[in-house]
Amino acid sequence: MTIPREGETIQVHSYKHDGHIHRVWQETTVLKGTRNIVIGANERTLVTEADGRTWLTREPSICYFHAEHWFNIICMLREDGVYYYVNMSSPFVFDNQALKYIDYDLDVKVFPDMSYMILDEDEYADHKRKMNYPDVIDQILKRNLEKLLTWIKQRRGPFAPDFIEVWTNRYKFYKQMK
């Protein structure tokens, strides 16, 4: 697996368990790229859905992907605070200028006060049945959901108080260079 370079612009591709494309983010600036972690940022980037519909993201976002954890975290910078949207997903891989992962339906919305809601449990159950998710995937996702909830409660990783400031400043630096 290649590693994305800091300052490089990449695409983010989300797939479903059956291999079909789910969603593509056209442009994300890499702020940190290692074998295990990719932190990116985007703002008003074009997103294409599996059915061809497109839309633009509304606010600047810092995106956190890990090669060992079964979730990725989108930190949306809004006027009234940082909102987090977490996709329960496979760890990422990077190839051909695109970061790729499998979206496993379950999502967690985290509010600026660190309260949260688990979303799409019905969609997960439906897709688990339709796409035949193996029991081992179900167990891995449940363990990783517990890990994620611990991170939120302990304000670890992207939920740490200084995470947004550090990576927003790095994003501003790369935007000025363009």
Provide keyphrases for this structure:
single chain; 178 residues; alpha+beta; FomD barrel-like fold; 7-stranded mixed β-barrel; 3 helices; 25% helix
General description of the model:
25% of the residues lie in helices and 43% in strands. The protein is an alpha+beta fold and 178 residues long. The chain has a single domain (9-177), classed as FomD-like (FomD barrel-like fold, Beta Barrel). Strands 1-2-3-6-7-8-10 form a seven-stranded mixed barrel. Strand 2 (21-33) and strand 3 form a beta hairpin. The protein starts with 8 loop residues before the first strand and ends with a helix. The model has no long low-confidence stretch (mean pLDDT 96).
Short description:
With 178 residues, this protein is of the alpha+beta class. The protein is built from three helices and eleven strands; from the N terminus they run βββββββββββααα.
* CATH superfamily annotation: FomD-like
Give the CA-CA distance, first to last residue: 27 Å
Tell me, what is the CATH class? Mainly Beta
Radius of gyration over all CA atoms, rounded: 16 Å
Strand order of the biggest β-sheet: 1-2-3-6-7-8-10
- Mean pLDDT across residues: 96
- SSE ordering: EEEEEEEEEEEHHH
Q: Mind summarizing the main beta sheet?
A: 7 strands, mixed, barrel
Q: What percentage of amino acids are in beta strands?
A: 35-45%
Low-pLDDT residue spans? none
User: Which of globular, elongated, flat, extended, rod-shaped describes the shape?
Assistant: globular
Tally of strands? 11
CATH topology: FomD barrel-like fold
Can you name the CATH architecture? Beta Barrel
Number of helices: 3
Structural class: alpha+beta
Number of domains: 1
Helical amount among residues, as a percent range?
Answer: 25-40%
